[in-house]
Amino acid sequence: YNKLTDSIPSWISSFRSMAALRLSNNGFSGGIPSLAGLWQLYALDLSNNELFGSLPQLPTSLRSLSLAHNVLSGQIHLLWRLRRLRTLDLSDNRFAGSIRGVISLPDVNAVNLSSNWFIELEVPKFGGRATALEVLELQENRLQGRLPVNLVTVQNLTVINLSHNQFSGPIPRVFGLRLGSPWKRLYLNHNFLAGSVPPEFLNSKLKIKGNLAYNCLKCPRNVTMCNEGQRPASECIGQVTPKREVSL
């Protein structure tokens, strides 16, 4: 890489036939100019710079978008327009608000929104709707509320990382039915989850990697996913376990 500095020039959008724009690992600062006119652009990588401000208008032709490791902020709800998107990496920024539409994009395979300031995760019920999503990385945010039960309706999902957030309440019973197949990795550690874990989590024969440590759970330490222990009782005051939800 070249360690280019200064801001990304607005005239870059005049290259209408550009298919890929990769300016990662430089020292670019300032905002990202509107790129909506690059109607053939399928790959955009501006990761590892010093860019700030909100998301600009982006071409709907994008299939790969990486803006990781910048200082970008604001909300991301306009990304639902990128219907061809396959990979999305906005990790290590300051995006905030709700996570909703990007999970529903029909072709998106991997979503990494870790290390941001998001506070809410909304997952629709997919039912028979096709979705390509396999990897969902939302660790190190400020996500609150209950774990979204509708994650079990995302048919191809294999990797889920919701660790280092502020989720509370019980682990949904139906999560246990997805362990090992199709879910291969499940990280829920460093939250405020409470109550007993679903019995499937106690099965030592399950082929799954994950972590339930540093919650307020009743989970024996001889269970692999709990062997690092839970939060001290003083951190779990007020984490009352409600009645289990009805299974889907």
From TrEMBL:
Protein keywords: Oxidoreductase
Name this polypeptide is given: 2-alkenal reductase (NAD(P)(+))
Record InterPro entries: Leu-rich_rpt, LRR_dom_sf, StomDev_PlantInt_Reg
SUPFAM superfamilies, per the entry: L domain-like (SSF52058)
GO function terms (MF aspect): 2-alkenal reductase [NAD(P)H] activity
Provenance organism: Opuntia streptacantha
Enzyme Commission code: 1.3.1.74
Pfam families hit by this protein: LRR_1
Keyword Repressor carried by entry: no
